[in-house]
Each structure stands twice: as structure tokens, then as C-alpha cells.
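FW: tagging you since you asked about this chain on Friday. Here's the raw sequence from the shared folder, copied in full. Didn't touch anything.
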Amino acid sequence: MTVDDSGSGEDAQGADSGEDPLALRLEGLILGAERRYTPFQAARSAGVSMELASRFWRAMGFADIGQAKALTEADVLALRRLAGLVEAGLLSEAMAVQVARSTGQTTARLAEWQIDSFLEGLTEPPEPGMTRTEVTYPIVELLLPELEEFLVYVWRRQLAASAGRVVQAADDEEMVDRRLAVGFADLVGFTRLTRRMEEEELGELVEAFETTAADLVAANGGRLIKTLGDEVLYAADDAGTAAEIALRLIETMAHDETMPELRVGMAFGTVTTRMGDVFGTTVNLASRLTSIAPKDAVLVDTAFAEELIRTQDAPASEADAAEEAAAAEKEGEEPPVYRFGLQPMWQRPVRGLGVVEPWLLTRRDRAP
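HL: got it, structure written out here
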């Protein structure tokens, strides 16, 4: 494929993909380059395999984009630098992936916080009649070089502090409330495994689990919040994305004979976010649902189920789905296609949260 060097390429691509023109302009401003490459072209230009490039990108927390022309010269340079560190023997390939993952997770949390608590406040329209979009671009244009230099300064200071074993005081930032889908994925029987396995073997299992989970969460559009050895916590902006991640985690782990069974619990609602972590009743409920989920199964709360039904990702019931399919067939129309199925489970008391009604989440056949 020939790379388009014209300045109108980005606008044309944005128009074709239906992306917001302001979002594309902001992306170009922040990245300092226009979209030029597909992932394959970027990997080839960087001199790395597509497999390694995908590992690096997923480790950095970026979703798979197929073969869309969405990468820039900076993306190529980043791949080239990481691969160069491996080729020079300074880092092993596994360590380079870890560097990409730790950097991606840390900066992702920083970026989320800056948008939620900092940039959003600065772009409030200063005058009546002005829209936020009219002030966002010039504000970002002014702030970007200053924030970039400040970021590098802080990173160097923190690196020096860690090297010198200097304890840094934690920042006390304001908490932000958001509505999110939150999921916990937990290895079943991990405590028993710790008694049977050697430490090195156990460490390899945990690392494999965390790596697989982190890649799946990132590739499917979620955000890895943290890993807790035998458990990972992730979040997504919508229930459908979180549901897809949960089922892919179950499906992927089930095909790996070295892994124990997995169980996932999810809840949807308001959470408090602070420096990349999440807190609140919704998070607690997701954790409790994980503890009572069957092996290789996903349990969700009522709010999560209602959100899937609202967005038409799941039918209210299989009976409703059958009626809809029959009505569509009678009218000669295509029946609704649902990605997920929901089955109400037994009501039960959950410690600290009262009585809850879990729902079993499944992947639904495409056929009605």
C-alpha cells in the first residue's frame, strides 16, 4: 500500500471513518505527526516482525486496530527503539515487553487523570456562547510543550529518587466519580497451588496469567487497573466491552492446560477513580461476585445486566428473543442479533452489600 504524503490524508481518513474532526486535529497536535502507516507498514518500517510489534503495542495498552492507517513516524521510532535495545543485548525480549507494559500502564493512568481532573476543567467555555470544542485546541496547543517538559523532569526526578532509595510522598489528588463497568478475574484454587508448586514455577504461572490478562484487556478496549497475583482488576467505559473481555479471558484460559480455572465477577455503576485506581461499592460488588462465581463462568450484577439489555447487547430473556425472532420471520425481516445471553441466578446475601441477584453471562449463538 502506498503511503499518502499529502496533508489532506488525515482529514479524508477521518471523514471516511466518521471520526470527530476535532479529535483528529487534537491527535495530530499531540502526536506531532499525521497518520501514515498501518500496523503492518509500521512494523516493516521499524524492521520488526508483526508478532513482536503487536506484543509491544498490546503491552503499552493500545487496542488492536486491524489494518487501519492510524500510526505515525513516532510509532515507528518507538518500535525501532525497543527492538534496538533487544538487538543490542541491553534488554531481553521479555524485559522489553515489561518496559513497554509498565510505561504504558503508568502513563495511561496519568493521561486519564489529566483529562478527568485537569484538562476538563481548563476547557470550560470562558465566555457565554462559546463551546468547549472552540477552546480545547488552543489550550492543548499552549499546554502541550510545557506538560511534556514537566513530565520528563518529574520522571528523571523520580528515577533519581528511586535509585537513591529516597522515599517520595504520595500525591493527594482529588477523587473523580465515573460510571464504569468493573471486572475482577480470579484464578480458582490459587492458595492450594501455592502449597504444591515451587516458588519459581508459581511465579511463572502468575506472570503468564497477568501477561495474558493484560494483553486481552488492552486489545479489546479495556483498561487494566492493577494485578494482584492471582487476580486482575480491569475497567471499561461500557458493559459490552467489559463482557467481551470477561468471556475472552475465560475462553483463553480454558484452552491453556497449564492454567487453573478462572472465574470473573463484574458490576456496573459509579466508581471513584484516583490516580488510576478505582474504589467504591461497584468495585466491592464485583469482587464479591467473583468469590461466588462458578469455575470458568462470569457473574454480573443486576445493573450490569440491565445495561447490556439497554444497549441491546443481550435480550431481556431467551423467551423475549424467541418472540422477536418469530415476529421478524413473520415480517420477512432480520431478527435482532445479540452478542450475550443472561440467566438470572439465585438471590443470596453478600457480605457488606445485602441481598444481590447475580446473572450468569454467556456468549450467545449468532443464530436466533
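FW: The first helix runs from residue 9 to 17.
HL: agreed, and The two ends are 40 Å apart (CA to CA).
FW: great, closing this out.
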